[in-house]
Design a protein that fits this description.
The chain has helices spanning about 1-80, 90-110, 165-185, and strands at about 115, 130-135, 140-145, 150, 155, 160-165. It is an alpha+beta fold.
């Protein structure tokens, strides 16, 4: 009978050892599952952030394209209003056009559109496009041909400008242009 108790005890020890081994195996599996779940959760958060960022970029691009299409309308209104004579200034329809112009400017400003400052500033090839040179301070913008605009920090349309050059520099440039024209003949 002593042997039976000892064999039952060793059998119980074996069963306990087997259960402990299975428990450790299951703990290991649960830790792996938990780690995998945490990685999947982090991947999901990164995906959400990335898609949100991409949506914002898409909105910016579509806004900038739309606003870019409105800029010629703004230019046309400015040109029309700059040519209004004193005899027309009292008419209400002229005042109405001024109000429309101001409203359009306010809407564009609300979207973050601003004019690029040009006249008197140093020429910046990222903000300005030189269309001509004129006598004046070297590298300074002397005249603005067409306004430029930015959307926040992004240039929507560079300002078309005339850049100053020293008087001697203009003559050298004109003679080099003439000699190039003669060479082509």
């Amino acid at each position: 009978m002593g042997e039976d108790k000892q064999s039952e005890k060793s059998k119980a020890d074996l069963d306990l050892e087997k259960l402990n081994t299975e428990l450790e195996s299951e703990k290991s599996k649960s830790e792996q599952y938990l780690d995998s779940w945490k990685r999947a959760q982090a991947d999901l958060e990164n995906f959400k952030r990335q898609t949100s960022k991409e949506r914002g970029e898409i909105a910016k691009v579509s806004n900038s394209a739309f606003i870019g299409n409105l800029l010629p309308v703004l230019d046309d209104l400015e040109r029309a209003l700059s040519n209004v004579t004193d005899s027309l200034r009292g008419f209400t329809w002229i005042d109405g056009i001024w109000l429309i112009y101001k409203k359009l400017q306010a809407v564009l400003t609300g979207y973050g559109v601003s004019e690029i400052e040009s006249v008197g500033k140093q020429f910046d090839p990222y903000m300005h496009q030189a269309v001509d040179y004129t006598e004046g301070d070297e590298g300074k913008i002397m005249e603005e041909v067409q306004k430029g605009y930015k959307l926040q920090d992004k240039v929507l349309r560079p300002a078309l400008v005339k850049v100053g050059k020293k008087a001697g520099g203009l003559e050298d440039e004109e003679s080099s242009v003439e000699s190039l024209a003669e060479d082509e003949k």
